Description:
By secondary structure, this protein is of the alpha+beta class. The protein has an 8-stranded antiparallel β-barrel with strand order 1-2-7-5-6-4-3-8. Helix 22 (about 355-365) runs antiparallel to helix 23 and helix 23 (about 370-380) runs parallel beside helix 25. The longest helix has about 40 residues, at about 15-55.
Amino acid sequence: MPGRRFLKRFARHWSPSTILCASSLALLAVTSRVAAQDAVLVDALAGILQVEDERRYDGPLLEAGARHPEPLVRRVAVLAMGRIGDPAATGVLLEILEDPDSIVQRYAAFSLGLLADTAALTLLGQVVLNTPDDLQHGMHAEAITAIAKIGGPEAAAIIRELLGRWTARASSAAPPVTVVSAIREAWRLEQDAPADLLVEFTVSPLRVAKLGAVYSLARLRAAVASDVLLAATGSREEETRADAVRALTAAYADSAGLDRTALANRVRRLVSDPDPHVRINALRTLATYHDSTLVPTVIDRLSDGNANVRVRAIATLTDLGGSAAIEELRAQARKRPFAVRRQALIGMARLAGIDALSEIGAWLVEENWIYRAAGAEALGYIAKDTVIPWLVHMTNDPDPRVAAPALASLTAIAPDQATRRARRLIRHQDAAVRAVAADRLASVADIADIDRLVAAYQLAARDSTSAARIAILGALGQISRLGFVERIAVEERFLTRVPASPDYIARRAVEDRFPEAAKRWGPVGSLHTGRSIEDYRDIARRFVAPGGNGERRLIIETTHGPITIELFTQDAPLTISTLWQLVDQRYFDAGTWHRVVPNFVIQGGDPRGDGWGGPGFALRDEINLHRYGRGTVGMALSGPDTGGSQFFITHSPQPHLDGTFTVIGRVDSGMEVVDLITQGDRIRRIRRP
């Protein structure tokens, strides 16, 4: 062969050492060429990450990325278009639906859902309705999700037509991916959803279709589905039982024409279900009946082996009421863990009123702020003059984590007193207290408060978080809407004297809350992220490019044991890069799970421990294609692009969170630990494996 003859001639004329040298030079050349190619790839990715992070729609850069020869670059570019949210991307994304890479197509369909531009509906409808069943894949499923997110009658008509084609075979054949997606996403259409067609798929031989149908019907609270929801409570699938029983509330009984007592008895049986998630949902539903005859059933769950079931049982007991409930709550207020005691204390305040003061008073003198804060919250359920001085005094608590809930409770039972306190506290040193005070002043919207709010805003300009700034801007916006005189006063005393906020989150907030400020300050524009292009190159190299060395696992050490998380580094590289920086700074050590909602989420990552804390910066959302199943890890938000350090882990599938909160990973091991955690439990530390 020609190659072998060449090698023989090469060997006759060159010495071994020369051959070795030549081989090394050739390998070096190949390595250099690969390194150059990698550098070009990293540069392309870095540029896209930068404009996405800045929320700046750079059409030429993003469109070039969407047509890059490397599929990875195309995926990152089309996802960035959706995340940035500029409808100028709609046309390009529709073209990318025909990309040669099916994964790129799927990303394009997903981004069209993020944009929610009605201009995309016609073509998306053609794609899902005209593609043969055997040629459908992930892109077509995402196109259905996009259609459902866009919503409206046209979207509903597309999904109705698609489902209608399959209803005759619903019980005998496995539907294609578009139909499965339409079943799962139909709940997004709300009153336009084809509930009558979804009923047909509750007996589908395909498990995922059956689960999706029950979920959508349960979330829609569809009256037409009463028979199938009742039947679903006897399903062998825990997830199906949990979804179905969540829908069977007292209000549903009325809307579906069902007998309340009979339906309550059906729910009552599931309070003892073998699965704790079903028990929690059944208890939550039972609470809607407000029937004290159900109390004995709930009391039985106060000794449940799962602490979160006990927490939910206490909340249900409170809603059902009655003297027997009060005595049980008094007993539970002395038991552990903290979450049980806190819920029982609040329950006693709601049911016993002033007679619960002795128990609450003991919490108000505790050294640990978390007990005083819970006591302040409980007082907010006792609408008696006796507790007002207590709450006024607690708004002066040296710990702002107590002062803030005390002011919120005062607002609930004594609005006038709360307004007076808010006017004093609007310049408090703590941003959370100022935010609560500003919300109170927004509710009264008095022109006399303008100067106070302006001074508070100038103080808030130095805050590390946006909460107080947004609340104060909201209060000024409320005043400006009162009339001509108030609008002129706000313009003269605030808008003409205070420069436009550089805070991207606050600027976005004023568009809805304070239109005059939005007009005066101008467009939001791109935001300054504090990162250089070299930072983005490093993130692209470590977390996005093939072979990156960004660590993909972390361990959360809790008082109940470790939880190991698998991180989706390519899908949320900016968030995960920041997360690792915080881990290396030991930011999360000695933290708490400050929020736990049974059979929903556990939430941590707040150094304050009261839900108001963060790292002093905001992260842009990196919404991605991952779904919220059991054990999904997401970033907590107070609005779009407000993520920081707070994160949550889901107890069970939560499809309504899909496409709204950044998914950063999933629990790889330790879900049994997640199920044990209650509010107030500790995070010992978060570390690398």
